[in-house]
Amino acid sequence: MEHSAMANDYTHSIYMPIPWEIFHRDTRVLAQRIIAEHHRYDGIIAIARGGMIPACIIARELDIRTVEAVSVASYDDRAQGAPRMLKGVDTDLVGDGDNWLVIDDLVDSGVTASVVRNLLPRATIATVYAKPEGQAAVDLFAVPVQSELWLLFPWDAELKPNEPLARHHAGPSKGA
């Protein structure tokens, strides 16, 4: 696992909000790619937290009812640090991951995927979105995204009115 002592800082990234409808569509694209592989899985393992919602969508689309979760934390807000295993899997159920599908929302640097790969070396790892740095760490993904983007998932965002752009760049507005 390649991981530098220096944490990745994404606080100055370009934000890309993803609405529920687009996220659902992109997750179904991933399901179609998984189905195209012509492989039936015994179950799905969601990487908590981001992988839980796409794992539910994928489980429905693939008609899989056995869903497990693993939890690896590597972000503090928008800064990436060393990964920490918070919850493993039921090894009596999933073994080394053979015939299991691991789902996450995004592969960024590949750090989390590498931790899960070490835990479940025979599992298939799939993500909805993939940045170039992490694409090699997963087996399948639906949508490539640029490195400088910070994806703002619908469960991480709130809808609220925003100020007109002109108010951010100039003094008091003239007229009403």
Chain-wise SSE layout:
Layout: E1 8-9, E2 14-17, H1 20-36, E3 43-48, H2 52-62, E4 67-76, E5 79-87, H3 91-94, E6 100-107, H4 111-119, E7 124-130, E8 140-144, E9 149-152, H5 165-169
Features:
176 residues; 7-stranded mixed sheet; two-stranded parallel sheet; disordered N terminus
How would you characterize this protein structure?
With 176 residues, the chain is α/β, with parallel strands linked by helices. It has five helices and nine strands; from the N terminus they run E-E-H-E-H-E-E-H-E-H-E-E-E-H. The protein has helices at 20-36, 52-62, 91-94, 111-119, 165-169, and strands at 8-9, 14-17, 43-48, 67-76, 79-87, 100-107, 124-130, 140-144, 149-152. The protein has a seven-stranded mixed β-sheet with strand order 1-5-4-3-6-7-8, sandwiched between helices. Strands 2-9 form a two-stranded parallel sheet. The protein is globular and about 60 Å long.
Work out the helix count.
5
Q: What distance separates the N and C termini?
A: 57 Å
The largest β sheet comes out as: 7 strands, mixed
Weakly predicted, low-confidence segments: 1-6
Order of strands in the sheet with most strands: 1-5-4-3-6-7-8
Shape: globular
Short description:
The protein has five helices and nine strands, in the order E-E-H-E-H-E-E-H-E-H-E-E-E-H. It is an alpha/beta fold and 176 residues long.
